[in-house]
Specification:
Layout lengths: L2 H104 L37
Protein backbone atom coordinates (compact mmCIF):
# COMPACT_ATOMS: atom_id res chain seq x y z
CA UNK A 1 0.00 0.00 0.00
CA UNK A 2 1.16 3.39 -0.88
CA UNK A 3 1.16 6.36 1.44
CA UNK A 4 -1.72 7.86 -0.51
CA UNK A 5 -3.81 4.76 -0.06
CA UNK A 6 -2.99 4.65 3.65
CA UNK A 7 -3.99 8.31 4.04
CA UNK A 8 -7.23 7.72 2.13
CA UNK A 9 -8.05 4.67 4.28
CA UNK A 10 -7.28 6.67 7.46
CA UNK A 11 -9.52 9.49 6.27
CA UNK A 12 -12.31 7.01 5.51
CA UNK A 13 -11.91 5.44 8.97
CA UNK A 14 -11.95 8.84 10.65
CA UNK A 15 -15.10 9.82 8.75
CA UNK A 16 -16.74 6.64 9.97
CA UNK A 17 -15.68 7.37 13.57
CA UNK A 18 -16.99 10.94 13.28
CA UNK A 19 -20.24 9.69 11.83
CA UNK A 20 -20.62 7.17 14.65
CA UNK A 21 -19.81 9.83 17.25
CA UNK A 22 -22.33 12.21 15.71
CA UNK A 23 -25.01 9.54 15.73
CA UNK A 24 -24.14 8.61 19.28
CA UNK A 25 -24.03 12.15 20.69
CA UNK A 26 -26.38 14.00 18.35
CA UNK A 27 -29.31 13.80 20.75
CA UNK A 28 -27.10 14.98 23.61
CA UNK A 29 -25.80 17.88 21.50
CA UNK A 30 -29.32 19.05 20.66
CA UNK A 31 -30.30 18.79 24.33
CA UNK A 32 -27.20 20.73 25.25
CA UNK A 33 -28.09 23.47 22.73
CA UNK A 34 -31.65 23.62 24.11
CA UNK A 35 -30.33 23.81 27.66
CA UNK A 36 -27.96 26.62 26.67
CA UNK A 37 -30.85 28.53 25.04
CA UNK A 38 -33.01 28.10 28.16
CA UNK A 39 -30.15 29.22 30.38
CA UNK A 40 -29.53 32.30 28.21
CA UNK A 41 -33.21 33.26 28.53
CA UNK A 42 -33.03 32.72 32.28
CA UNK A 43 -29.91 34.90 32.53
CA UNK A 44 -31.70 37.73 30.66
CA UNK A 45 -34.74 37.39 32.92
CA UNK A 46 -32.52 37.51 36.01
CA UNK A 47 -30.72 40.62 34.69
CA UNK A 48 -34.09 42.39 34.24
CA UNK A 49 -35.21 41.28 37.69
CA UNK A 50 -31.93 42.51 39.16
CA UNK A 51 -32.46 45.95 37.58
CA UNK A 52 -35.99 46.10 38.98
CA UNK A 53 -34.70 45.16 42.42
CA UNK A 54 -32.04 47.86 42.23
CA UNK A 55 -34.73 50.45 41.41
CA UNK A 56 -36.90 49.17 44.25
CA UNK A 57 -33.93 49.38 46.62
CA UNK A 58 -33.28 52.99 45.62
CA UNK A 59 -36.96 53.81 46.22
CA UNK A 60 -36.80 52.08 49.59
CA UNK A 61 -33.73 54.13 50.50
CA UNK A 62 -35.54 57.32 49.48
CA UNK A 63 -38.56 56.29 51.54
CA UNK A 64 -36.34 55.57 54.54
CA UNK A 65 -34.76 59.00 54.19
CA UNK A 66 -38.19 60.61 53.98
CA UNK A 67 -39.47 58.55 56.89
CA UNK A 68 -36.50 59.67 58.97
CA UNK A 69 -37.39 63.32 58.35
CA UNK A 70 -41.05 62.89 59.37
CA UNK A 71 -40.57 63.44 63.15
CA UNK A 72 -38.59 66.64 62.50
CA UNK A 73 -41.28 67.87 60.13
CA UNK A 74 -44.01 67.07 62.67
CA UNK A 75 -42.19 69.10 65.32
CA UNK A 76 -41.72 71.95 62.84
CA UNK A 77 -45.42 71.92 61.99
CA UNK A 78 -46.32 71.95 65.68
CA UNK A 79 -44.01 74.92 66.31
CA UNK A 80 -45.35 76.78 63.28
CA UNK A 81 -48.95 76.21 64.40
CA UNK A 82 -48.09 77.57 67.83
CA UNK A 83 -46.40 80.60 66.27
CA UNK A 84 -49.36 81.07 63.91
CA UNK A 85 -51.78 81.08 66.86
CA UNK A 86 -49.65 83.64 68.69
CA UNK A 87 -49.50 85.85 65.59
CA UNK A 88 -53.27 85.59 65.09
CA UNK A 89 -53.79 86.70 68.69
CA UNK A 90 -51.39 89.59 68.19
CA UNK A 91 -53.16 90.64 64.98
CA UNK A 92 -56.50 90.52 66.78
CA UNK A 93 -55.12 92.64 69.62
CA UNK A 94 -53.64 95.20 67.20
CA UNK A 95 -56.90 95.28 65.22
CA UNK A 96 -58.81 96.04 68.41
CA UNK A 97 -56.36 98.82 69.27
CA UNK A 98 -56.72 100.24 65.78
CA UNK A 99 -60.51 100.27 66.07
CA UNK A 100 -60.24 102.02 69.42
CA UNK A 101 -57.95 104.67 67.94
CA UNK A 102 -60.24 105.14 64.94
CA UNK A 103 -63.20 105.61 67.25
CA UNK A 104 -61.25 108.18 69.25
CA UNK A 105 -60.32 110.06 66.10
CA UNK A 106 -63.94 110.21 65.01
CA UNK A 107 -65.02 111.76 68.30
CA UNK A 108 -64.71 115.50 68.42
CA UNK A 109 -66.42 118.06 70.56
CA UNK A 110 -69.09 118.19 67.89
CA UNK A 111 -69.87 114.46 67.91
CA UNK A 112 -69.61 113.79 71.62
CA UNK A 113 -70.25 115.43 74.95
CA UNK A 114 -66.58 116.39 75.32
CA UNK A 115 -65.42 120.01 75.38
CA UNK A 116 -63.59 121.43 72.35
CA UNK A 117 -60.27 121.44 74.21
CA UNK A 118 -60.07 117.62 73.91
CA UNK A 119 -60.18 117.64 70.11
CA UNK A 120 -57.11 115.82 68.96
CA UNK A 121 -56.94 117.40 65.54
CA UNK A 122 -57.96 121.04 65.66
CA UNK A 123 -58.29 123.09 62.57
CA UNK A 124 -55.43 125.58 62.52
CA UNK A 125 -56.58 129.10 63.21
CA UNK A 126 -54.82 131.79 61.23
CA UNK A 127 -53.16 134.47 63.34
CA UNK A 128 -52.75 136.78 60.35
CA UNK A 129 -54.51 140.10 60.57
CA UNK A 130 -56.40 141.09 57.45
CA UNK A 131 -55.11 144.23 55.79
CA UNK A 132 -58.27 145.23 54.07
CA UNK A 133 -56.79 145.03 50.59
CA UNK A 134 -58.20 142.95 47.83
CA UNK A 135 -56.72 139.51 47.53
CA UNK A 136 -54.53 138.86 44.51
CA UNK A 137 -51.23 139.90 42.95
CA UNK A 138 -49.57 143.26 42.54
CA UNK A 139 -51.27 146.07 40.72
CA UNK A 140 -50.43 146.67 37.09
CA UNK A 141 -48.88 150.07 36.47
CA UNK A 142 -49.62 151.79 33.21
CA UNK A 143 -47.22 154.33 31.73
Amino acid sequence: MTALQIAQKTIKDLKAVISNLRAKYEDGYEQLQQTVAVLQKEVLRLIRENEQLKKALKQDEKQETLAASVPYLKETVKALRKENTALKNEVEKITDQLETLRDRMKKTSETSDKPSSVNIFKKPVSTRVKSGRKPGGQCQFSN
